[in-house]
Amino acid sequence: MLRILATILHLRSININTFDIQNEDDDNTEATFISFDKHLLLISELLGTNMNAMRKWLRYRKIISMRKDFLKPMNAKQAIRTRIALAKHIYSKLSNWIVICINNSLQFQDKVQCFISVYKKMKRAILDFQRYSKGFLARQRAEWIRCERTAIKIQMNIRG
After folding, report:
1. Which intervals hold domain Myosin motor (predicted)?
2. 144 closest CA partner among 125, 120, 159
3. Residue 69 gets which letter from DSSP?
4. Is residue 29 helix, strand or coil?
């Protein structure tokens, strides 16, 4: 887990440089270049991937057509967004794994009844509140109750 967190932190430090290239249509386009970077080397070691492949896919995007696959160089803005998207994806997968581990550790053999009764009492309070309340303070209280109800549902999901 710490290796993956270190990967996310090192992704931010990769230097993405730009240069102009001339394509087949004689148009100048901006492309990116990632030099030999200690952060990229560390990321490759931490994830167990090839550094050159990591460098390639942070700079190019693959377009698949019916007949042929194209590699199109990304400009600096696209490459930075790709780097951020990769970090977010890794973080998302890590967060899901942590939630699964927590849920597995909190599972009980016996069924927990107390959360259901709390939820029923909260539901009853919401119905009573909606019946008798009006105005601005009522909307604030309703929002608070909605937040509390969401928290209770989350607790129920975590507990089983």
Report:
1. 1-160
2. 125
3. E
4. strand
